[in-house]
Amino acid sequence: MAARAAVTMLVALLAPWGDDRLDHAAYATFGAFASVYGGPARSPRRWRLQAAAGAVLVLAVGSGAATGTLPARAWAAGRARRAPGRRHPRGPAVAAGLLVLPLPALSVIVLVAACQALTELLVPRHYGAALVFITPLALLIGQLANRQPVGELLVSRLLETVIGVGVGVAFAIATRERR
Length: 179
What we know:
Blueprint lengths: L1 H17 L6 H12 L6 H26 L3 H4 L15 H9 L5 H18 L4 H19 L4 H26 L4
């Protein structure tokens, strides 16, 4: 699966690169990646599989939204704790290191495919470890489509993360039950 996902990502990015349309890189990767989960099934079967997967995702989001309206005690599994010996997230550091390199677009495309393969290998086993490659994957695809100064991109990503954490904490405090 990891090899197929990496090759799919590579082919999807080589097409807009060859046409000098890297501004379409994100669209190409999303469209191509959707085809990976159809597997080797023929078209009618693939469409049914993708429709079923879409229905499951809609149900999952719907049930998550419904669960989110319940009191916190009803659905919280427990306190989030840092695992012993666990270090700080490395995904942003890896992304920063890759983004500062003056790589040609073709090298970035190969890096994206490698990050996709490593992500596919790690997600089923250890999502936290996969984040080391998911963050650079997302930022590298974004840079292919729309180049930005690396410093501004990383500061923007940091601010978006801080805002998201702030909103989540504020919501958790506002909706918790008082004892």
